Amino acid sequence: MIVIRACEGFEELAACVRLQIETWGYDEGDVIPRRAFLVAQKIGGQVIGAFDSEITCSSPNGGPESLVGFAFSLPGVKTGAGEPRAYLHSHMLAVKDAYRNRGLGTRLKLEQRREALARGLRYMEWTFDPLEIKNAHLNIHKLGAIVRGYRANFYGVSSSQLQGGLPTDRLLAEWRLDSSRVNAILEGNLAVTPRIEERILVPASIYQWKASEAGRELALALQSANRQKFQQAFSLGLAVLAFSLDAEGNGVFELGSPTQAETE
Ligand SMILES: CC(C)(COP(=O)(O)OP(=O)(O)OC[C@H]1O[C@@H](n2cnc3c(N)ncnc32)[C@H](O)[C@@H]1OP(=O)(O)O)[C@@H](O)C(=O)NCCC(=O)NCCS
Questions:
Q1: How far, in Å, CA of 108 to CA of 233, rounded?
Q2: 90 CB contacts (<8 Å, ≥6 apart)?
Q3: Which of 138, 169, 172, 202 to mutate to test ligand 1, by most ligand atoms within 8 A of the CB atom?
Q4: Distance in Å, CA 81 to ligand 1 centroid
Q5: Cα distance from N-terminal residue to C-terminal residue, the chain
């Protein structure tokens, strides 16, 4: 059985750091240390773990040795018009390779949402790589996030093994935790939007392109072509409102004009 709960104690935070390194292969300049996880927990962030109770450990709720996934978020403040508004920036989500595609990533996000709403926090943001079809499917199709922002080379140079040496371009996911859109999507009422004005494609072969030296030029060309399309669309007020996959695993970002309810 997999238990999803807040991480406790130094050892569970250290297990998150190990899984972070296993997932992204970060060097010591990029890795987020245990102390930062600890501080995030103390100041209103979240360190939520997925624990496999089948892995031998002292407690039925799991322990550091049974950590198979985690979600990590930091508290943030939005300023501008009106009162300053607290929100969460979700910085990392990782599931051990052998445990992927069984719903754990989704369960970790849903626990982030539940815990945030229980504290009166209604908004969460995170960034994700626009070339990662799987993450787009999870963030937009399954969770109901929308996207209106593109950050070119957001982190600068990265030692991440998932980045394939490409610029660290990111889309900004906006998750309105208790909006009618998100509630409908989580309840399985796929809010199919008839308002699609533009589609931006990512071929399934992107994963092979990113993984090989020979494919890197193709990945780079796609990244820069899609960057232009996203930036242009966002400058016109469009938002990513849906994401679909075809039978071959190619991904399609579907953009349209968001309603006021989708952006508040
Ligand atoms: C992203 C990640 C956390 C997802 O965890 P997970 O436990 O596999 O997620 P889930 O099982 O809840 O959902 C995955 C969904 O993607 C789908 N999927 C899997 N491979 C896919 C692919 N190549 N293209 C499109 N969708 C894909 C799964 O079928 C599932 O969708 P479904 O429930 O509609 O069938 C995990 O893959 C991971 O750790 N990746 C590396 C780190 C990372 O990229 N983190 C996120 C960015 S910070």
A1: 31
A2: 46, 71, 72, 73, 109, 112, 124, 125, 126
A3: 138
A4: 36
A5: 38
Q: Mean pLDDT throughout 166-181?
A: 96
Q: Is the CB of 89 under 6 A from ligand 1?
A: no
Return the pLDDT at 189.
Answer: 83
Where does the pLDDT of residue 230 fall: very low under 50, low under 70, confident under 90, or very high at 90 and above?
very high
